[in-house]
Amino acid sequence: MVNKGIVTKINGDTVAVKLYKSSSCSHCSCCSETNKMGSNFEFKINQKVELGDLVTLEISEKDVVKAAFIAYIFPPIFMILGYIVADQLGFSEMQSIFGSFLGLGVGFIFLALYDRFFAKKTIDEEIKVVAVEKYDPNACTNLAESCEDF
After folding, report:
1. Is there a domain that residue 150 lies in?
2. Is residue 23 part of a domain?
3. With 90 as the cut, is the pLDDT of residue 94 above it?
4. What are 16's strand-pairing partners?
5. CA torsion sign, 89 to 91 to 95 to 100?
6. For this UniProt entry, which segments traverse the membrane (predicted)?
7. Model pTM score
8. 8, 54: one domain
9. Assign residue 52 a region: left if phi > 0, alpha if psi is -120 to 50, beta otherwise?
10. Burial bucket for residue 107 (CB in 10 Å: 0-12, 13-18, 19+)
11. In this predicted structure, what is the pLDDT of residue 21?
12. End-to-end CA distance of the chain
């Protein structure tokens, strides 16, 4: 997966990049830049960049699928396990439903702990900066002009 963004902050070897929204960038019609920008993203970098540079980031599809699996599959699995455990312990159906929500809460706690202690380190290792370019927001002044790079 490839994405582009603008360097907004540099702190030693850590940079903050304001990523483009993928859907907005795929078919640029030279709309205002604020409509195309997504969220801020911080990671470590070993290349020289300056504020305002346009960076192209790449992360393997395997890592994206792994992150999506952890974020979207683990909490429901814990929810189902919470129900099964409560049911096997002989609780009533209402108490088992409460157990499922308790399991969901445990799943979200697991997700928060994973994010805090493992995901940041993993992201720094998996993100690769493919290209660094000087960014010129005035490069696209003609609406008929193709703006595929921005």
Report:
1. no
2. yes
3. yes
4. 9, 42
5. positive
6. 67-85, 97-114
7. 0.59
8. yes
9. left
10. buried
11. 72
12. 17
User: Are 69 and 102 members of one domain?
Assistant: yes
Q: Six-digit token pair at 54?
A: 């346009």
The values of phi and psi at residue 106, to 5°, are -65, -40
Residue with tokens 């952890």: 70
Same domain, 121 and 69: yes
26 and 77, same structural domain?
no
Give the mean pLDDT of 84-92: 96
- 112 and 134 fall within a common domain: no
Residues 30-63 have pLDDT tens digits of 555 555 667 777 878 877 888 888 888 888 888 8
Structural domain contains residue 120? yes
Share of the chain above pLDDT 70, in %: 75
Pair (37, 66) in one structural domain: no
H helices present in 1-150, as ranges = 22-26, 33-36, 61-88, 93-114, 120-126
- The residue segments making up the domain with residue 46 are 2-59+127-139
pLDDT at 5: 84
Residue 86's SS3 state is: helix
